[in-house]
Amino acid sequence: MTPPEYAIVGRVRKAHGVRGELVVEPITDAPDAIFAPGRRLFAGTTDGEVAPGAPALTVRGSKPFKGGRIVAFAEIADRNAAEVWRDRYLLVPFAELTPPGENEVFRHDLIGMRMERVTGEPVGTVTALYDLPQGLVLEVGEGPGAVLVPYRPEVVVRVDVDARVVLVDPPEGLLE
């Protein structure tokens, strides 16, 4: 599996006002740095892929707004232009991001990792990620036998990126 070249850093929720501003849900631990004036972001599709032929967007301004951000881009001048961005992702090349620190992991690294219980018993392979209001959830396995595991500190004990293992200590009944 080839790792992606771009990281999803935000999702456009809707247009805001008449000057082309967008309400953006940050999908990053560093929204102030990612949405800083002058920063270049790439347009993504509603599936999170880089949009073919879409322009790079330059942040003109950004401010916190109701758990997200209002972001103005130099290339989006009015509400009509802003409306077409609804539900699209914003991306940044991984090469431009600070590498994850100790006990941190890029989301895309989780796909394809083996999941094991702290007892060493295999659970399966992480096949998908879901952003739910309660937080990130990992899908492990496929088909009717797949299970959903919350990516929470009380469940996920450790992620070993080098060994490609997610170590879990699930509460009783979670994996049944």
Write structural notes for this entry.
With 176 residues, this protein is mainly β. It folds into 2 domains: 6-95, Beta Barrel (Elongation Factor Tu (Ef-tu), domain 3); 107-168, PRC-barrel domain (SH3 type barrels, Roll), CATH 2.30.30. The chain is built from 3 helices and 12 strands; from the N terminus they run ββαβββαβαββββββ. The protein has helices at residues 31-34, 79-83, 107-110, and strands at 6-16, 21-26, 40-43, 56-65, 68-73, 89-93, 114-117, 122-132, 135-140, 147-150, 156-160, 165-168. It has a 6-stranded antiparallel β-barrel with strand order 1-2-5-4-3-6. Strands 10-9-8-7-12-11 form a 6-stranded mixed beta sheet, with no helix packed on it. Strand 4 (56-65) and strand 5 form a beta hairpin. The longest helix has 5 residues, at 79-83. It is elongated. The mean pLDDT is 88.
Jot down its keywords.
6-stranded mixed beta sheet, mainly beta, SH3 type barrels, 12 strands, 176 residues, 6-stranded antiparallel barrel, 2 domains, elongated, Elongation Factor Tu (Ef-tu), domain 3
The helix-and-strand class reads mainly beta
The number of helical segments is 3
The number of E-state strands comes to 12
CATH architecture of the largest domain: Beta Barrel
Report the sheet-strand fraction.
35-45%
Can you identify the CATH class of the largest domain? Answer: Mainly Beta
What multimeric state do the chains show?
Answer: single chain
Q: Radius of gyration from the CA trace?
A: 18 Å
Taking pLDDT < 50 over at least 5 consecutive residues as the criterion, the unreliable ranges are: none
Q: On the 0-100 scale, what is the average pLDDT? A: 88
Task: Give me the CATH superfamily of the largest domain.
Answer: RimM
Numbering strands along the chain, what is their spatial order in the largest sheet? 1-2-5-4-3-6
Shape: elongated
